[in-house]
Design goal:
It is a single chain. The chain is mainly alpha-helical. Helix content is 48%, strand content 0%.
């Protein structure tokens, strides 16, 4: 009787054991060694956006990730500078509004004059059309916007150092995206996560 119970338990436990699978080449394995596939997650694509293994789609998504990461890094720095009370000197507009008159965070959108908002949008459009792309076709990697103009010694670095620096930028951009999102959410909740506030 005991052996029958033991055999039944063993058989039911076997139902939950992982099935052995042959090593198959999937489309996802095409990106497992790409920059950004780092411990502890490795290559992480929970929505299956590049499940088809399309390199062009992957490059476009990586380009977008790098660009948003760079914007988020500037946003976090700008948010923290504004929250610390640092402002540009002088007038923001001809009606007498100074930079110091503009509040922090979301409240700034309503305080900036409409002409100022139009200038910000025009500047962003100018950057998008003129600079934030591979205009010359000589980029070394997705997200390389040097366009043969700015180097800062990049070409003198070893390939290993370049990959390490690109990985650092990618990870810092990912962290900054989460950081600015957290700052914005806490501002809307009315809870400051900054010390001394």
């Amino acid at each position: 009787m005991k052996s029958a119970i033991f055999a039944t338990l063993l058989a039911s436990a076997a139902a939950f054991a992982p099935a052995s699978q042959k090593a198959t080449s999937t489309a996802l394995s095409a990106f497992e060694n790409e920059l950004g596939a780092q411990a502890p997650l490795g290559f992480f694509d929970p929505l299956g956006m590049v499940a088809d293994g399309d390199q062009e789609k992957f490059d476009r998504l990586r380009f977008t990730e790098i660009k948003h990461g760079r914007i988020a890094m500037m946003a976090v720095a700008g948010y923290l500078v504004a929250e610390s009370g640092i402002r540009l000197p002088g007038l923001l507009s001809y009606d007498g509004t100074t930079f110091a008159d503009i509040p922090n965070g979301f409240a700034a959108f309503n305080a900036i004059p409409k002409a100022g908002v139009a200038q910000i949008i025009a500047f962003i459009a100018f950057l998008e059309v003129g600079f934030m792309k591979d205009a010359t076709g000589e980029n070394d990697f997705v997200g390389d916007f040097r366009n043969g103009f700015i180097d800062f010694g990049w070409d003198k670095l070893s390939e290993e150092t370049k990959m390490r620096k690109r990985a650092i930028e990618l990870n810092q951009g990912r962290a900054a995206q989460m950081g600015i999102f957290g700052l914005m959410v806490h501002e809307q909740l009315g809870v400051s996560i900054l010390p001394g506030q």
